Amino acid sequence: MTRRLLGSVAALVALIWSASASAVAPDCRDLVPPAFLEHTKRDIIASDLVALRDIGQAAPEEAESPIAVSPDGNLIAFQLRRAVPAANAYCLGMFVVRVNAAGGLTMVDQGGSFMLDRLPMAGRRTASLSSGYPAAIRPEWSPDGVWIAYLRRDDGVTQLWRAKADGSRAEPVTHAISDVTDFAWSADGRAFVYATHPGIAQARASLAKEALSGFHYDERFYPSASPLPLALDQGPLAIDVADLATGRVRGATAAERQLITPDRQGEDPPGAELTAQSSDGQMAWTAPRSSLPVAKHLWVRNSAGQTVRCASILCTGRLTNVWWTQSGGALLYARREGWALAQTGVYRWEPGQPPRQLMLTDDALVGCEIAGNALACAIEGSTTPRHIERIDAMTGQRTMLFDPNPEFARLRLGAVERLHWRNRLGFETLGDLVLPPDYRRGTRLPLIVVQYSTRGFLRGGTGHDYPIQLFAARGYAVLSFQRPKDYGELTGTQDIKTFFRADMRDFADRWSVLSSLERGVQLLVDRGVVDPRRVGLTGLSDGAVTVQFALLHSHVFAAAAASSCCLDRDAMVWPTTAMADLYRSAGYPSLRSPAPGFAKGYFVSASAGHLDTPLLIQASDHEYLAGLYAVTALREARKPVDLYVYPDEYHLKWQPAHRLATYQRGLQWFDFWLRDREDPNPIDTEQYQRWSAWKAQRGMSPTRLTIRTHVTSAEPRLRHPQVRAVAGSDHRKVARARARRSRSLIDRGFRWRQAPRRGDARATDPDRGR
């Protein structure tokens, strides 16, 4: 029996891998944007979002710019990619555009495989753990501006390539056995210094040997991602030099190694964070204000060695980047400001003069580089996918240089309105309301909340799992929600354990986020836009934890969807991981000390019998195990929970076919629960049988999903039978039951602590505590 079972499992795995390997090659003729477009407008469909041409990691908070400017400032190089769902693959190419002339797009190379980022574990690199984000592929120009160099992956190995900027030639430079992970041009442009990680191969060989006698359970294990220990890099970087003229490879000298792993000790000023150096040797940097670690000051050390701090308040706060102009006479910097720090200001400062604002925008500046007398930036707006613009360094005038998705302009999109409000703590909160293109004023619509960042292009929230404009086209109002600042920021600390403890004490941060959510929904109900009986909630990562907490403590949401679920007792099953240690330090109960108050306030499994909100979970195979404790408890209580697992996915889903399925299933889920509609082409042929059985079991219908006519603001309470027992009564009885329950919780310690009053500086100064 066991042998037959193992044989069946092996056959299934082989089938999955063979199907993946035999996928058709993608049609990449559409990688280059079309020159001419039809003028006819049409509604958006799922493939329009999945197949967008992307530059960079497709996240508005990228640490590294995805574009590179040539030494003379006239050309920009970048990688462009486009998903092909039918082939479950990507088309990739390297392109060059001119800075001072419209058009002039040149494709210098095409091909290669999609590359995922790789995350460290236990302080060491692993080849098998990723966030799901694309790897940061940023080309580097040769000193003479004739070539660009970049990483490209073929046949399972990443090598260093170079291509001529005029598109006449592209070729591999290295033929390494293990992946090339970093590189730099030599000063004369005649060679490359590059790094590989041979320790990964050594770790795999060591694991294969250890497998013969069994693995010791230690910090190498990440159980939700793999039943086996991860291969952790056990050795140093191998840094070599490839001569372009002869093709010979040799070990790098100490000076050459500095190009890959620079030792900047003594070069940067103490406490310096963001740094920039001008062509004439001037240094600019940001450093924390002593009392508020997240807020920064701007400093400059001129060519004479004098250190000057910009004294203007406009040089202080959440500074995000600094650049010297080409001449070195002025400094440009970016600063987050405005309500909830949602806007970006770009300033010009000439030491000795007050800074001058060049522009202020709600758009996300993903990556900017100095290009002559301008900034070249990858930028995205709420209804505008990422593109490349030129920002004049004197006037701030913006000029479009390259739009990778000109077809997007012919789509009928929902109108977007930026909303501002405060939560119970007085924290500034914002959201973008997206309405259907044909919305009629005065119509109440079902609402879907998408979390938890609303900066940049409104594709699908954090992780892009919940398609905002597709929901709007289907007839939903959508609230793209920006979570308020962390409660832990009130501590003014950068220590992660202190920060996390403050967040978790009495679930203060979770109450803060839920308060913002409920007040945002109430705002839309009061405006007559939203039907309060039909509100859905979605979330990934931190947003998924918000979904979990809302299931336990809110009566606002009639259906929910999450990309993982849920933080529960099993978070403590992995005692050797750093994450479990962090949970314990924040107050999570150990398995020997159940802490029923904590469990009922935070663990779905402890209150599964009282939860009736239909929950869809679309999780990756690297994360779904972490939620099985909660899912099993809900199923034992016969609650409406559906779990789908996507193979070879990580925290974020990267495969185009999975992204398309996630979009379509999410639409069908909310249509069923919020609009009582079934799609004639379901993703899963049995899904409606399950969902209908759950609906019949609980006597649900779109008009009986909730008992309220308006939303109540978040307050410290647990969902409890005492409240649910009056579901058929009038609203005064419900309110009295909630009030009794809230007072009981406050008496037991579930109270807001350290909450600033409305006029407190911590709640009104946008720079304090951030």
Automatic annotation (TrEMBL):
<dbReference type="InterPro" id="IPR011042">
    <property type="entry name" value="6-blade_b-propeller_TolB-like"/>
</dbReference>
<dbReference type="InterPro" id="IPR029058">
    <property type="entry name" value="AB_hydrolase_fold"/>
</dbReference>
<dbReference type="Pfam" id="PF00326">
    <property type="entry name" value="Peptidase_S9"/>
</dbReference>
<dbReference type="InterPro" id="IPR011659">
    <property type="entry name" value="WD40"/>
</dbReference>
<feature type="domain" description="Peptidase S9 prolyl oligopeptidase catalytic">
    <location>
        <begin position="519"/>
        <end position="675"/>
    </location>
</feature>
<keyword id="KW-0732">Signal</keyword>
<dbReference type="Pfam" id="PF07676">
    <property type="entry name" value="PD40"/>
</dbReference>
<protein>
    <recommendedName>
        <fullName>Peptidase S9 prolyl oligopeptidase catalytic domain-containing protein</fullName>
    </recommendedName>
</protein>
<dbReference type="InterPro" id="IPR001375">
    <property type="entry name" value="Peptidase_S9_cat"/>
</dbReference>
<dbReference type="InterPro" id="IPR053536">
    <property type="entry name" value="Lasso_peptide_isopeptidase"/>
</dbReference>
<feature type="signal peptide">
    <location>
        <begin position="1"/>
        <end position="23"/>
    </location>
</feature>
<feature type="region of interest" description="Disordered">
    <location>
        <begin position="259"/>
        <end position="282"/>
    </location>
</feature>
